Amino acid sequence: MAEKEQDILNKFKTNQEEEAAVDTTRKMRVGIIGTGWIAEAHIESYKRMPDVEIVAGADLIPGKAEAFFKRYGVEGVRCYPSHKEMLDNEQLDAVSVCTYNRQHVPCAKYALEKGVHVLLEKPMCVTLEEAIDLCRTEKASGKVLSIGFQPRFDANMKMIKKIVESGELGQIYYIQTGGGRRRGIPTPFGTTFIEENTAGLGALADIGCYSLDMVLNAIGYPKPLTVTGYKSDFFGKMPSYYPNHPEYADLFGVDDFAAAFVRLEGGIILDFRIAWAMNMDTPGDTIILGTKGGLRIPSTECWNGSVGGPMKIYHEVAGAQVETEIPIIPDDSNLFDKKIRTFLDAAKNGTPAPVPTSQILYNQAILSGIADSARVGHEIQIEIPEI
Predict the structure, then answer these.
(1) Max CA distance (Å), the chain
(2) Which residues of the chain form beta strands (DSSP E)?
(3) Spelled out in words, what is the top-level CATH class assigned to the domain 152-332+364-381?
């Protein structure tokens, strides 16, 4: 039996990926829209790319973009007070959109309409209607639009997809997923994450989109059909949560916890929960149940783009109920660099986006559906037209 289990484990051995040579004779002229916290990771990564020239930036706050590029030692960058002025006055190949959620679609759409490739930070947007509009603009433009889901490039995340695709679990029929933080409302970065007019959605979109992508990508992104959603803001509305800024409680206009029951095409049920704050260390491990086996993916204390420990497949071997442990794959590569590199390669070579909107449209439909269902208090159908 041990030999049989080893045979199963051998299926999931991975080879080190070879990095393709980068053509440095063709420089990509890049601009950054929004110079807040997440833009720091973008500029650091772009600086490591030998075929990139950062030439422009935009931010609504006067002087912020100039200070940002100076801090990172990038000289000669032309700065603008809006994305429109930047895109109207610059000849760019690509932009990173690093604004708050509610500005994702206006900035990405304008860039695409100007013939510029776009790397759009997650979440894709706030509503399904926005997502549909953006996808139609992308299709008309013929440009690359990739969404910023760097956890996909983690070796352990890829292993989840490999296990499902191997058939070892059989037909998938139920998934439990989610994650969260015991205390982790992201106010150290200001209040754009928690205000309704800037964020639109809270934990649901900020880290919930990652949890959904982990499992939906593994099972081939089936179309969502219906959703029953719930969301709350108990912690965000407590002045005592913010000892130094009790006024934040009055500004809090999004969710700090959300849960849902989602029906997917193919008869798959998705049981989802996510939290910025809760009186629990974790809402539970991710589990994927199939007719031949089940996969347990240990949770992490705070969403960090990977898994919390060795995964286990629960299945039957030679008539006995056994567990096969999938060891953690050491991966010290920079996931953000992989996100940036794959986007640049797609833009330069005219290949498909590494994280395509055709998939993330379904992710956004679920997020938006949870919020809509929570608002009306009952199950709703998800209607996604042809793009």
Answers:
(1) 69
(2) 28-33, 52-58, 78-80, 94-97, 117-121, 145-148, 172-180, 224-232, 257-264, 268-275, 286-290, 293-297, 311-317, 320-326, 380-381
(3) alpha beta
**Rg value, the chain, Cα:** 21
Smallest Cα–Cα separation from 171: which of 255, 61, 269? 269
Give mean pLDDT, residues 276-288: 95
Q: Residue 261: beta bridge partners? A: 228, 271
pTM of the model: 0.94
- Domain definitions of the chain by residue range: 28-150+337-354, 152-332+364-381
Cβ distance 36 to 192 under 8 Å? yes
CA 241 to chain centre: 27
Cα separation values, 144 from 108, 111, 116, 240, Å: 11, 11, 8, 45
With residue 213 as reference, give the H or E element that holds it. helix 208-218
Cα–Cα distance measured from residue 62 to residue 64, given in angstroms and rounded to the nearest whole number: 6
**pLDDT score recorded for residue 57:** 98
Buried b (16+ CB within 10 A) or exposed e, 227-256: bbbebbbebbeeeebbeeeeebbebbbbbb
State both tokens at 333. Answer: 């590569």
pLDDT value of position 2? 56
List, for residues 212-267, the tens digit of each pLDDT value: 999 999 999 999 999 999 999 999 999 999 999 999 999 999 999 999 999 999 99
Is residue 300 within 8 A of residue 281, CB to CB? The reply is: no
Reported as a single tens digit per residue, the pLDDT across 203-214 is 999 999 999 999
Smallest CA-to-CA distance from 104 within 83, 81, 78, 80 is with: 83
What is the spatial distance between Cα 154 and Cα 332, in angstroms, rounded to a whole number? 9
List the CATH code of the domain at 28-150+337-354: 3.40.50.720
Count other Cβ atoms within 10 Å, centred on residue 286: 23
Looking at residue 153, its pLDDT comes to 96
